[in-house]
Amino acid sequence: MTKSELIAYLAAENPHLRQPDVELIVATIFDEITAALARGDRVELRGFGAFSAKRRDPRTGRNPRTGAAVPVAGKAVPYFKPGKELRERVNGGALQAPARAARTKVEA
Question: Which residues cross the membrane (predicted)?
């Protein structure tokens, strides 16, 4: 689902809200999550999950074309950890992988 699809869905589910208001609400939520991560804060949405910024240390990488060593600066990357309720809903709604059959030795 894209941001525009989310806005259209929310507008359809809430006919008492105008489309521009729904756009503003969605944009504000995303902007606040982004701003919190930029400050180094953690954002937790109960039942959904938690957003945080994980720190990656500086390292030496390799140029794939030449194989030369390239210094890579440390950085923060966004990270999402799904909550228990989200994991259960996703796993409960998806087809479960079939259990592996026990391997038996075939005698000739």
Answer: none
